[in-house]
Amino acid sequence: MKPTRVGVLVSGNGSNLEAILKACRSKKIDAEVVLVVSNNPKAYALERAKKFKVPTFVVNAKENFETEVLSLLKQYNVELVCLAGFMRLLSKHFIQAYPNRILNIHPALLPAFPGLKAQKQAYDYGAKITGVTVHFVDEGCDTGPIILQKAIPILDSDTEETLFKRIQKVEHQIYPQAIQLFATGCLKINGRRVLRE
Ligand code: GRF
Asked: What is the pTM assigned to this prediction?
């Protein structure tokens, strides 16, 4: 089977990008990262991509941002777009260019704590359980159909930092898993529900 061609959009650290790159390179998943696009020229994710010799692009145009990114994704024949710490909302036009082909990872159990710094939101709220969600991207903020979730307890001894470390460890496991489910054609979307075939 030909590996699914993945384009990853990033803005920051890129630890999820690296987990995806490792899973692809070690052939744990039937996917290949064919380009990485950052809207932030200083993103450490770009260094990680270079280490894996994956083409990188910085697009930070105020206007035409999406047109430029879409044209790169097309140029590289991307089949699946993965947002990995990408800090910009995408328009309806962009999402419709890749219907049910854009994934995102979120550091909480959606629909709880959508938006920024979800791990801090859950910690500050005093929740006893939080987690990680991988979902399809729709036009809302963290509202798309859910592919995988994993719960993580918030311990009395946790600080926001120790909690986030555990969250990220789980992220690095379930993002590649979700990509593999997509790559092997195992996902069927039925309304809000994502079923495994
Ligand atoms: C992750 O916690 C992810 O859930 C959220 O942004 C963070 C990105 O981390 N969407 P990294 O850049 O992959 O290290």
From this structure: 0.97
